[in-house]
Amino acid sequence: MKKLSARRRHPLAALVVLLFALAVTGGLYAAFAPADKAQADDTAQSLAIKEGKKLFAVGCASCHGTGGQGTSDGPSLVGVGAAAVDFQVGTGRMPAQQPGAQVPRKKNIYNNAEIDQLAAYVASLGAGPAVPSKDQYSPDGADVGKGGELFRTNCAQCHNFTGKGGALTNGKFAPTLEGVDPKHIYEAMETGPQNMPSFGDGSLSQENKKDIVAYLGAVNGDDTESPGGLDLGGLGPVSEGLFGYIFGLGALVAVAIWVAARTTKAKKS
Amino acid sequence: MSNETSATTARRGQAPRGERVADWADGRLGIYSLAKSNMRKIFPDHWSFMLGEICLYSFIIIILTGVYLTLFFHPSMAEVTYHGSYVPMHGIRMTQAFESTLDISFDVRGGLLIRQIHHWSALIFLAGMMVHMMRVFFTGAFRKPREVNWLFGFLLLVLGMFTGFTGYSLPDDLLSGTGVRFIEGVILAMPLVGSYLQMFIFGGEFPGHDIIPRFFTVHVLLLPGIMLGLLVAHLILVFYHKHTQFPGAGKTNKNVVGMPLLPVYMAKAGGFFFLVFGVISVIAAVASINPVWAIGPYRPDQVSTGAQPDWYMGFAEGLVRVMPGWEWNFWGHTINFGVLIPILVFPLVLVAIAVYPFVESWVRGDKREHHILDRPRNVPTRTGFGVAWLIAYFVMLIGGGNDLWATHFHLSINSITWFVRIAFFVGPVLGFIATKRICMGLQRRDRDKVLHGRESGIIKRLPHGEFVEIHEPLDQEQLHVLTQHEQPTPLELGPEVDENGVERKVSRSKKLRAKLSKSYYGEDNVIPKPTAEEFKEITSGHGHH
Amino acid sequence: MSETGRHADVPEETLPSERHDAHGDAVAKGENPFADPGLPAHEHRVQDIDEKAARRSERVVAYLFLLSMLATVAFIASYVIFPIDKIVFIWPIGHISALNFSLGLTLGVALFCIGAGAVHWARTLMSDEEIADDRHPIEAEPEVKAKVLADFAQGAKESGFGRRKLIRNTMFGALALVPLSGVVLLRDLGPLPEKKLRTTGWKKGIRLVNQSTNLPLRPEDIAVGSLTFAKPEGLEEDSEDFNENIAKDALMLVRIQPQNIKDKQELAWSHEGIVAYSKICTHVGCPISLYEQQTHHVLCPCHQSTFDLSDGGRVIFGPAGHALPQLHITVKDGFLEAARDFAEPVGPSFWERG
Description:
The complex is a heterotrimer.
Chain A lengths: L1 H5 L6 H20 L8 H19 L1 H4 L16 H10 L21 H14 L8 H4 L6 H11 L1 H4 L6 E2 L5 E2 L7 H10 L14 H14 L17 H24 L9
Antiparallel strand pairs in A: 1-2
Chain B lengths: L1 H11 L4 H13 L1 H8 L3 E2 L7 H20 L8 E3 L11 E3 H11 L4 H28 L8 H23 L4 H16 L4 H9 L8 H31 L13 E6 H26 L5 H4 L18 H9 L5 E3 L2 E3 L1 H18 L1 H9 L15 H21 L1 H7 L4 H40 L1 E8 L5 E6 L3 H8 L24 H14 L10 H10 L4
Antiparallel strand pairs in B: 1-4, 2-3, 5-6, 7-8
Helix pairs in contact in B: 4-6, 4-11, 5-6, 6-7, 6-11, 7-10, 8-9, 13-14, 13-16, 16-18
Chain C lengths: L45 H4 L1 H31 L5 E4 L3 E4 H27 L6 E4 L7 H18 L5 H13 L1 H7 L22 E3 L16 E6 L9 H8 L1 E5 L8 H5 L5 E5 L11 E3 L4 E3 L6 E3 L5 E4 L8 E2 L1 E4 L2 E4 L16
Antiparallel strand pairs in C: 1-2, 4-5, 5-6, 6-7, 7-12, 8-9, 9-10, 10-11, 13-14
Helix pairs in contact in C: 2-3
């Protein structure tokens, strides 16, 4: 509570309250809105755009401009496409909380319906990559081996062999890909969020991207096998060296102390 | 002799079987004379004396497991397409070296375990050598007559690093291949001969098809062969010199106090081998090391972030990472200082500690044998130098992992690099000064303890209301231990003119020596230990506080 | 400076610990309050005086050896029982190989128990009385030294080594020359460098092929902010010398808004803002490719050299000594192709690079 009250005069406090209110209304709306899917597609689409515009005005416009044309605080969103919105908002990166070297992933504050509405609105501003369909990123029928090779050519330089993340210049970093929704991985490749370059279909074909997503699922999933035991973060020799020193040499020194220690003497008088 | 022997044999019947075998061997090898002085050889007990044993045993484990690995490993760079047991690697082109490493891990039962034991032992071997060397350094165990053995040990460390590096490169995985590429860059940076050396070592342009088989020979034959020889020499000298010991009751420079080799050390040292092997096996069972299947085969156009060598090369890696990019171009030639300087600083830093024993003995002018170990506090300059060296070493280890420190502590890689650049120069100086001061403080405390006894923690109220803590006098052993060290006086250059008023010629090296000697033993670097008179005066008079 | 220690600058007697022998009680303590009290009297362990305790220790040792035997049996059993690809989840380690885990653990226990048994035996049952053994100086006695020197002098004299200078000098000559044969034999380790380090597989008219899709690249494939890796057309992964070639030819393509390109030559060698740079770091040759699309900086993961792709590949941080080489590209028939080879050698610098 103390923390909360200390921050209530924060410049972003109003925004946060607004977002909360929005989330609540949105949630209520989603709960009570008629889930009528039978409606004509274009109607649903235009409705989504309309709702998205409202959400945008409250949550995004302060940085990205009322029409998404961008301001000094945030880039233009014209032409970034629905995939970018789905990625940025879906992974909680947007709305950004504070300026820094990089906007980190955090808990997302919109529900799926709202994200779709926002995406629909931003997509209406200018053509861009659409949110991928499930079979574009599902591992079925993908070539994991090829995905690995592609990953090592295109991705590992920043994200590490199995996607554990790595450092970039001046405090920026390539985040870990552990626990990231395959859809979001696909979208990140398509759209190139923040400093990540994009890998459009001209540079990585759709099939390539599917293979990469499948490879990540195989080597960086919840039940990825690590036959040798603890993977020590999958970070390579640095963590291995630390482990070797602390637990390897440490255990051996402990044993040596026992070997060399004097045996307890019979009662000293 | 035969008369006598047959007489005894006749009396007792035939000698026991073991004895007869020993007699046979003695007639040919002279084992009795050898055993006479060695069987009951005395070894002092101290855990830090076993650090070297950790290295010895991990080296033996490495050889045992290494031989096993050669049974399955193909040191070949011929390319194949993988169709083995590890699915995420299916259809990938790789060298036979990488493929056979995958096979050892996934198709040879127990192969993964042996691989992991081999690699973990290598890390522990080098870590052990490092710590062992530091123990020897800080206790002054390198002093006469052990300087040569110090050098043997140092060579073992350096060769161990290169044996480790060549072994790490053998699987031809993406990580180690990147390391080999780095070596190529280093070779190319050599002035004059670089590009020729590169072509000769790699058998053509990088990566070629020769480097893995060549590294294999170096890794399994050349370097371990030399190391084995050095190791045997190292051990023979340990036996020959007899082990050093810490000061204590009954321990003098002319004896060695401890337990006999047979049986106690046979059991302890022999048992310790099994303990070391056991611990490393358990580590290999629970912790993965160098999972090449996750890393992938080497290709010169691929790379991963977090590209580091094994820890023992991290120091060199750090030097290379934080070096500014200096390069000279002149008359159609290029000198790549960005690579060259770190590669020169790397051996220089190592050599600095290797030659230290000779520097110290020169400064000290001391030609006597030393078998009683120093307490580090009593030699503040040496201890300070050791700490400074360690700081330089570990600062560079940080530099070698700057990307991982950056991501894990949310720092900027550039700031860490700058920190390391500065700390490499400033850190050792600060460390030296601080260590010296701490040593002096500890000397002062020793002095107080000798003169006033140990603080007992018991508070007494005196009749006039004052509270004092009772100090207990030390026992004789402690008094001895705290005062047995020498406090030499610094080298004096003598008067500048001789008795005839003619200026005396003092060589420059002698002046330097006098200066260094002062920094070792000058007034500011030593707390005079209590004299017997001081002690008697204080202890005789009164029951005081 | 004399090396014969006895005439050292510091007199022998000052080494305090040398003043008293091991059992130094004889030295009057009254004179020296800090005298070495000598070896303390040996104290018995429980095992030394209590046969029951000794038997307990014996049992512990035997149990340890027995446990080791059981562990070895378990090792063999696990070798037989667990298939090599069996994966089990073991908290908190993760999904690991059952075989590796069981073999390592049983082997570890089998070995550790032998060691623990032996050490416990030594610690509790073998005599723990400390023994003092005398040391003898490493240096030989003066008579021995004199004898050796005399022997040497005689041997040297008999050999005529010092007198017959001709033999000596020719021998040194022969010994100095003979290793040259070994050096000469190393010549065929590899070819001479010649121009190999200066050229790559790129030349005029060679198309840029996408590494990932294996298709020739068109300008429209490269979007602003994207990153694409390319190889020369005709270089196939399964060719014998693929690695040697890709080690020099690997290319990275990015598109920068032409107005953001600061370097004139870079602009001239680009196509509509598409610039092609060598992927091989100029420091020690790592494939540098950590491209930040907003800053146009590219970072090397090995040693953090940072290059600015919008400014001629200039080095802005780290140990690299010179800019990243750019490949001059053009478009023909709608496909990107090289206009020439790199203007300078790619990769790390070397003496002849200039």
